[in-house]
Design brief:
The complex is a heterodimer. In chain A, about 85% of the residues lie in helices and about 0% in strands. By secondary structure, chain A is an all-alpha fold. Chain A has one domain. Chain A is globular and about 65 Å long. Chain B has nine helices and ten strands. In chain B, the strands form two sheets. In chain B, strands 6-7-8-3-9-10 form a six-stranded mixed beta sheet, sandwiched between helices. In chain B, strands 2-1-4-5 form a four-stranded antiparallel beta sheet, covered by helices on one side. In chain B, a hairpin with a 2-residue loop joins strand 9 and strand 10. Classes of the chains: A mainly alpha, B alpha/beta.
Chain lengths: ~260, ~260
């Protein structure tokens, strides 16, 4: 009968959630520092950095240009109601650099790389390749997990920097060609308005997002069980957990950054 | 039994997954240079036993001694150093599908022992020849190989670093009888050549008779019989008789759920 008690059910779910967060935290710590005692697998790190960083650029760039373009229209329309259209470049730039650039880029990379890591490691797990690696005197945390976590954490700020530029460019195109802004003034306004903190706060967020994305992808892949279905479940969990972690940590970091 | 310290001793090994007790007190010794085959139905804990010794699963109770030292009491670093001398052939071959055949065989040499790529490749080609595969195979990817060839490559990978102990998990399952015989011969041949001690788990009696010096039967998480391979037909144990002769009727009722 206990199972029908809503309080007991809620309690059990809460305990399970806490246990999962604890397990993920321990996994993240081990994954982030396993390489310290050596060896560091440079080739794995570089190949992960190219796969996650460089290969994500097209999709992140497309997302950024359309986000910037749509944002320009919305800001123009909204701010026209109190005759503040001239501030469009500044509002757009702050929104992109502090919030939308890191957020959208991270969500796109989560969809692309977190799922990819979970599927790849999951397939290796269920076909015994991870166990085989241990029996060949290579620590899977050093060979598989650390390179992916480090590569994603380091690459995401660079991806976000590109997303910021392309996003502002998308807004610029709409502002100049559809809304009648003067191109050089648009750029000059942004340049004199944006502070270093605006940009760096976004890049710090990006590093944290990169860490979370790779930890979720690796954790759910590494722990997956039970054949194709298990790998499918791991992929789904990795993407959902990454997205939730990105949005939750985004709020926490924003509340810290806007206070300084 | 000789005075020598056994290569591996297992004492009172227990492991449960949730409610289900898979190993309920396993005891055995493996002498140096001996080949022990553990037989038993599906889901009797054979794989769990090997994974406990390898350190991939932590047992609930019991001792695992390698060269007389209880590895469960060792700190992780020392323990890994002990288990490093074990090579394993996995049931599904478990080749790294992102790497070429020669990189699979040389994996331990390159990434574990940090040997140069050229010397590791030379060693890999030598191993490839020892398992009867031509050098052209070296640059293929594992997915391009047949099941039997994958097993051979996996065997070459397991013996690449000349381990002192070799584990074989269902080495012939899923292979045709001729390929299975090739693998059996390679196992006997390579174990002798490397001078290793071996534990194999299988339910293929043809394979068991070929590669075993001794056979032990695992049933319901315990070793219920053990003896020289040539006495397996006259064990006098009804469980062993039923299994060896493959009869549906007898004291063993097959478990429905996998361990």
């Amino acid at each position: 009968m206990e199972t029908l008690n809503p309080a007991a059910q809620f309690g059990r779910a809460a305990i399970a959630l806490l246990a999962e967060i604890g397990a993920i935290s321990l996994f993240a710590l081990r994954g982030a520092f396993a390489w310290v005692s050596g060896p560091f697998y440079t080739r794995e790190f570089i190949s992960a950095a190219i796969r996650i960083g460089f290969n994500s650029l097209p999709v992140v760039g497309l997302t950024a240009v359309f986000t910037g373009a749509a944002l320009a229209l919305n800001i123009y329309d909204g701010s026209a109601r109190f005759n503040a259209e001239t501030f469009l470049p500044q509002i757009l730039a702050v929104s992109i650099v502090r919030e939308l650039g890191p957020g959208f880029a991270a969500l796109m990379v989560a969809g692309r790389s977190s799922s990819g890591m979970a599927a790849e490691l999951g397939a290796m797990r269920v076909s015994d390749q991870i166990d085989a690696m241990s029996t060949l005197a290579v620590d899977p945390f050093k060979f598989l997990i650390s390179p992916r976590i480090l590569a994603t954490t380091i690459m995401l700020p660079f991806i976000v920097l590109v997303a910021d530029l392309i996003g502002i460019l998308g807004g610029w195109a709409v502002a100049v060609y559809a809304l009648g802004f003067e191109g050089a003034t648009y750029i000059r306004n942004i340049d004199s308005f944006l502070t270093t903190e605006d940009v760096t706060s976004g890049l710090i967020k990006a590093g944290v997002f990169g860490f979370l994305i790779s930890v979720m992808g690796c954790y759910y892949g590494y722990k997956s069980r039970g054949g194709a279905q298990g790998v499918g479940g791991a992929t789904r969990s990795a993407v959902v957990a990454s997205a939730v972690a990105i949005l939750a940590s985004n709020y926490i970091m924003t509340s810290l950054f806007v206070d300084f | 039994m000789s005075e020598e310290t056994p290569k591996i001793s297992v004492r009172g090994l227990r492991k449960s997954f949730g409610e289900k007790e898979v190993l309920c007190g396993v005891d055995f010794d493996l002498q140096k240079g001996n080949s022990l085959v553990v037989i038993g139905g599906s889901g009797t804990g054979k794989s769990v036993l090997l994974k406990c010794i390898l350190g991939l699963i932590t047992p609930d109770a019991g001792e695992i001694l390698i060269d007389g030292i209880n590895i469960l009491k060792l700190p992780p670093f020392e323990r890994t150093r002990k288990t490093r001398q074990i090579g394993m052939l996995f049931q599904g071959a478990a080749l790294f599908d992102s790497l070429k055949v020669w990189e699979n065989i040389a994996f331990r040499l390159i990434y574990g022992d940090r040997k140069s790529s050229a010397s590791a490749r030379a060693a890999a080609l030598e191993r490839l020849a020892q398992v009867g595969l031509p050098p052209e195979v070296a640059n293929l990817s594992p997915a391009e190989l047949s099941g039997g060839m994958q097993k051979r490559v996996a065997l070459a990978r397991a013996i690449a670093a000349e381990p002192k102990i070799l584990f074989f998990d269902e080495p012939t399952t899923g292979l045709d009888p001729i390929t299975a015989d090739v693998i059996n011969r390679l196992i006997v041949d390579r174990v002798k050549a490397v001078g290793a001690s071996a534990i194999s788990i299988t339910h293929d009696m043809v394979s068991a008779r070929k590669i075993a010096d001794e056979i032990a039967m695992l049933h319901k998480g315990r070793i219920i019989w053990r003896g020289p391979a040539d006495e397996i037909n006259s064990s006098g144990n009804p469980y062993v008789d039923q299994f060896v002769n493959g009869r549906a009727e007898g004291p063993i009722k097959m478990a429905l759920k996998n361990a």
